[in-house]
Amino acid sequence: MARNNELVRQWEILREIDGARNGISIAKLAAARGVHTRTIRRDIDALGRAGFPLYDDKTNGTSMWRLRAKPFHRLEETGLGLMELCALYFSRALVESLAGAPLHDDLQRAFGKLERALPPGCRTFLDRLPVLMKAKGAGRKKRDEKKLQDVVSRVLDASLRHRRVTMRYASASSARTKDYTVESLRLAYALGGLYLQAFVPEYGEIRTFSVERIRTLGVLDEQFKPRPMPVEAFADSLGVFSGTPADVAIEFDAEVAECVREREWHSSQQIIDGTDGSILVRLRVCIDQPLRQWILGFGAAARVVSPSTLVADIHDCADRMRARYAARAPMLRMGASSLTGVRRQA
Q1: Regarding the domain delimited by 145-223, which CATH topology (the fold level of the hierarchy) does it fall under?
Q2: Bridge partners, residue 59, by sequence
Q3: Is the distance from CB of 294 to CB of 310 less than 8 angstroms?
C-alpha cells in the first residue's frame, strides 16, 4: 500500500509541475500533500531518473520546478504533450475493458506507437501505475472475432462511402432470420456488444442491429444520402434501444435510496426526497427491456408510480416470478426438511 501511495504521489507531482505555468516550489508541493520537503525532493529525483525532463529555475531566490514542453523528438512528431501522452498510456487499462472488440488490435498498435515515443525509464514508471486503475466491462457477447472484424470493416467502408448494404440478420426478438437492405449510419459499442444503427427503407425508420447477429453482409453499389443522427447513441434508453421516450416515475425505499441517488442513471433524471427516507425518481426514457430489468433489479425496494402501462408490465412480471417460485416451493421445503433430519441424526 505504501508503494502505491508513493506512485500516486509522484504521478500527482508530475501533473502539478506540468500544469504550473511559472513553475512550482518544493515547499508548495509538500504542503499540498502534507509531507516533508525531503519526500518531495526524493520523488522529483526518482522521476528525473525515470526520464521525465524536470528542471528548476530560480525565481526571487526560490527554485521553481518545471517540465520541459517538448523533450523528445518522437514525442514532437505525435503532436502530443508529454503529460497528454502519459495520460493516454496510463488509461490503457480502461481501453482494455473493451478487449475483444474488433478495434482492439488497432488500439494495441496505436498504444505501441505511443509507447515508443516514451523513454524506457518513463515507460517503466507508467507501467506500475495501471495496477492502481482497473476497469471492468460488461459481459462481452460471444462471437467469431475474425468474422466480426470482416463485418465491421465492410460496415465502416459502406458508411464512409454512403453505400447501401444487404445483410442476413438473425433477430433475437422475432426468433427468425431475415434479409435486409439498409443504409449504414453508425456503429456503437454498448454493454459488451457492437450495434449497427441503420436506416431501413422497407420500414422508413432507423433501427438497431446487433453486429454479432449479422450472418452475412455485402456492400452494394447503390449510394444513399446520409441522414441526421442524434449526437449520443441510444440517448433515450438506459440500455441499447431506440424509441420514443416517455415520462417515468419510480419510488425507491429508504434502503436503496442512497445507492440510487449517488449515480446518474440518465441525463433526464430528477430526484425528489420523501419524508421517510424514500426518493421519487423521474426519468424521460424509452419504456424498454433495459428499463424493466433496471427496475426489477431493485426487487421489492422499487415501485413504479407511472405510467400505468409500465406499472402493469412490472406487476405482471412479478406475478409470473412468484408463480415460478411457488411451483418449486414444496420441493424446496422437502429438501430443507431432509437436510434438517440428517443434521439431527448426526
Answers
A1: SH3 type barrels. (2.30.30)
A2: 62
A3: no
Q: Which set of grid coordinates corresponds to residue 145? A: 472475432
Q: Is residue 316 scored above 70 in pLDDT?
A: yes
**Which among 191, 240, 212 has a CA at the least distance from the CA of 149?**
212
User: 241: closest CA among 283, 278, 210?
Assistant: 210
User: At residue 53, what is the residue type?
Assistant: P
CA angle (28, 29, 32) in 5-degree steps: 85
User: What are the tens digits of pLDDT across the range 201-259?
Assistant: 999 988 899 988 999 999 999 999 988 887 888 889 998 887 889 999 999 999 999 99
**2-67 CATH choice from 3.20.20.110, 3.40.50.300, 2.60.120.620, 1.10.10.10:** 1.10.10.10
Do residues 26 and 41 touch, judged by C-beta distance below 8 A?
yes
Task: Label the pairing between strands 54-59 and 62-67.
Answer: antiparallel
CA nearest to 234, candidates 189, 297, 301, 192: 189
The C-alpha R_g of the chain, in whole angstroms, comes to 28
- Spatial distance between the Cα atoms of 346 and 336, rounded to a whole number of angstroms: 16
Half-sphere exposure of 200 (CA within 13 A, CB side): 14
Q: Which three cell numbers stand for residue 298?
A: 431493485
Q: Where in the chain is the domain with CATH 2.30.30.530?
A: 145-223
Sign of CA dihedral 62, 63, 65, 71: positive
